[in-house]
Design goal:
Blueprint (H helix, E strand, L loop, with lengths): L1 H36 L5 H14 L2 E2 L4 H10 L3 H21 L2 E14 L3 E13 L7 E14 L2 E8 L5
Antiparallel strand pairs: 1-2, 2-3, 3-4, 4-5
Length: 166
């Protein structure tokens, strides 16, 4: 009986050693690969930032303004989402009163920095804007910085910054 117990103990020790070596190898590979994997945000972050910049800059007071707010809210999270939700009614009323329209053209985007959880995307575009006081569309070159967070595989904007917003 002692021989059976001793053999079982050797098997357990051997298996534990193999498992430990395997886990150690996996951990070492993660340490070696992680800096390279986290060096750049994925292409999905750039595309989401670009999409958000286009959506937040395209609206029409007379056509689907509720859809505009839903599209922006669907692409956002955190403080931006909360503030946009809270100011939605007042902003919609002001947009209708001023009869604003805007479209985005020549949208280009690039990742400034990021990893697989967060990214900063710089969005440049030409925005064509008009309102009741200036019915002819005015061209405005815009640069916005969209800060994104990966939420369960979806890149959502949590902050929007532009010199024109200050």
């Amino acid at each position: 009986m002692d021989r059976v117990v001793w053999t079982d103990r050797r098997k357990i020790v051997f298996r534990t050693g193999v498992l430990g070596s395997l886990l150690g190898s996996i951990a070492m590979a993660a340490v070696i690969v992680a800096p390279n994997a986290a060096a750049n945000a994925p292409e999905a972050a750039r595309l989401a930032g670009c999409d958000f910049g286009r959506e937040v800059s395209t609206y029409d007071h007379a056509h689907d303004l509720d859809g505009y707010f839903e599209r922006v809210l669907d692409r956002s999270t955190g403080a931006f989402h909360a503030e946009f939700t809270q100011s939605r009614d007042a902003l919609a009323a002001a947009m209708r009163q001023a009869e604003v329209r805007s479209t985005a053209e020549n949208v280009t985007c690039g990742v400034v920095n990021g990893d697989f959880l967060n990214a900063d995307v710089l969005v440049t575009m030409t925005q064509l804007r008009s309102n009741a006081n200036a019915p002819e569309p005015e061209r405005l070159n815009m640069v916005i910085n969209v800060k994104l967070t990966n939420v369960w595989g979806r890149w959502l904007a949590h902050e929007l910054d532009s010199p024109l917003l200050k």
